[in-house]
Amino acid sequence: MSLAASRPRPPAFPVNWPARLAWIGLALYALYATSILNLTWARFVVGLDNGAKFLDRMFPPNMQADKLELIGSGMLESIQIAVLATFFGVLLSLPLGLMAARNLAPGWLSWSARGLIAVLRSFHPVIVSILFVKAVGFGALAGILALIVSSMGFVSKLFAEVVEEMNAKQVEAVRATGANFWNVLIFAVMPQVMARFVGLSVYQLDSNLRNSTMVGIVGGGGIGAPLFTAYQRFDYDVVLTILICIIALIMLAEVVSGRIRRIFQ
Amino acid sequence: MKETQAPPDQARRWQRFSPAERIARSMLAIVTAVAVVWSIKTIDIIPEFLYDAPEQTADLFKRMWPFDWGFYPKAVHDALIETFHIATLGTMLAIVLALPLSFLAARNFTKSPVLNFLAQFIFVSSRSVNSLIWALLFVAIFGPGALSGVLSIAFRSIGFIGKLFGEALEEAQRGPIEALTAAGAPRSMILAKGYWPQVEPAFWSVALLRWDINIRESAVLGLVGAGGIGVALDSALNNLYWDQVGLILAVIFLVVIATEIVTSTIRKRII
Amino acid sequence: MNSALLTIRNLRKEYRLGQPVLKDISLDIDAKGVTAIIGPSGTGKSTLIRCINRLVDPTSGEILFAGQDLAKLSGAPLRAARRRIGMVFQEYNLVERLSVIENVLSGRLGYVPAWRAFLRRFPQADIARAFDLIDAVGLNQDFATRRADALSGGQRQRVGIARAIMQDPALVLADEPTSSLDPKTSVEIMELLAELSDKRGVPIIVNIHNVGLAKRFAGRIIGMTGGEVVYDGPPDGLRDDHLKHIYGGEDFL
Question: Chain B window 190-229: which residues touch C at a Cβ cutoff of 8 Å?
Answer without folding.
Answer: 192-194, 197-198, 200
